[in-house]
């Protein structure tokens, strides 16, 4: 039996597969709301969340997809977009992460859409939904949420909107019933896949090329894997519980070469949680890129343990990485205190090992970019001082590394969230509150203004502030 929901129903004129030949396909609108960057953050990036969701929809062949990037276009452009597309839309999918004001922008956009007659169901997904699916699903402007990887769930969701699948069978779905109770679909499978060869035509790629002084003049961001294998206790990836899945080296190389040929990119900035989880893949990619000799520069994230593992396996990793054009490696070090690293973060690495791998990075001629967190629950002043003394030691290396100090932010679903609650942290209670939940500002009662100021002072990056 099909479950009836308090969702806007599909208008008959937009009914799916039965549409007569020659009529347009039903349209799925995917929205990436604006992120209010920290004051001096220079860039916004290609919304890979939406490209990843759009890909299987287009491959299925029954839908058109239109993307709206709120980082590129303002409220007036959204109104024009709705004028143009709403008639044909069967659903609006909105991506939200916690913080950065993105949720508030999402709600404003949805409110505007819902003021119009015949607005289709609005479904929220993305990192914030992974964190707090039920609270999000209870918001009056949200018709449903899809928790987990959208490439597994959006097509079934559309089938359900069109009455072809029970809502209770849509992976990751949570929606309010008229009674106020929540209806849940089955668990969304954690393994993702389907990455690469994105439908680039949905966006104007040229608008996303950046002159990045740490990479190259025409740098594009890219995400080549999802998930992580490490268990750092403050990390959002633990909440997500998605299994690590990555594009294979040859598929990734083919995509990078294609982007080079089609859009003239000369740099790639990988935004994977940890690009080096699979060392065999990393080495194959580097060797392949070196062979192709495109003069491409690239940057990626790395865990100190990846370098230690590569050493044990005698892979000659960093030499290969440097030879293939890698200009910058970003590493979350988190702390200079061995107690904090071991007991609080579970980083599985010591301060001495961090210094050791950072030296190897510098010796390979690669810019190291190191991030730290201060203000963990129970962290002492002396332990924070150890972080600052490690930063000082790192800054003695050549090339001089970038250093960035964040303030601890308790994300629901992480082990440190519970510890933060026990230490007196009071979490936001609604979507708007989570919208303002930024780790650039102090979120926890035990973090003093002096700690905040010191963290800012010790953040030294090579990117020029946006003018
Ligand atoms: C690029 C990026 C940014 C960009 C913004 C993105 C852009 N397009 O411009 C920038 C640099 C601006 C940014 C900023 C911030 N970011 Co950010 N960012 C990322 C990053 C590195 C990559 C995002 C990405 O493209 N992923 C790849 C895609 C394929 O994965 P995805 O986004 O998770 O999408 C999948 C699912 O979530 C889901 N999904 C997503 N959207 C939707 C929508 C629908 C309808 C459905 C059904 C499914 C769905 O399906 C997708 C495919 O599987 C991620 C970490 C990561 N590697 O994912 C962090 C990440 C998203 N950021 C995060 C955070 C916290 C921030 C900040 C808010 C930090 C802060 N200060 O507090 C800031 C913004 C504030 C500020 N003041 O600057 C967190 C979010 C955690 C959370 N609970 O929401 C992440 C996960 C990093 C982390 N591990 O902590 N970020």
TrEMBL record:
GO MF: 4 iron, 4 sulfur cluster binding; catalytic activity; cobalamin binding; metal ion binding
Claim: Nucleus is one of the keywords in the record: no
Keyword entries, A-Z: Iron, Iron-sulfur, Metal-binding, Methyltransferase, S-adenosyl-L-methionine, Transferase
Source domain of life: Bacteria
Annotated ranges, domain B12-binding: 25-168
Record GO cellular component, one term: cytosol
InterPro entries (alphabetical): BchE-like (IPR051198), Cobalamin-bd (IPR006158), Elp3/MiaA/NifB-like_rSAM (IPR006638), Methyltransferase_Class_B (IPR034466), rSAM (IPR007197), rSAM_sf (IPR058240)
Cofactor: [4Fe-4S] cluster
Residue ranges of domain Radical SAM core in the record: 215-450
SMART domains the record matches: Elp3
Protein name, as recorded: Radical SAM superfamily enzyme YgiQ, UPF0313 family
Species per Swiss-Prot/TrEMBL record: Streptacidiphilus jiangxiensis
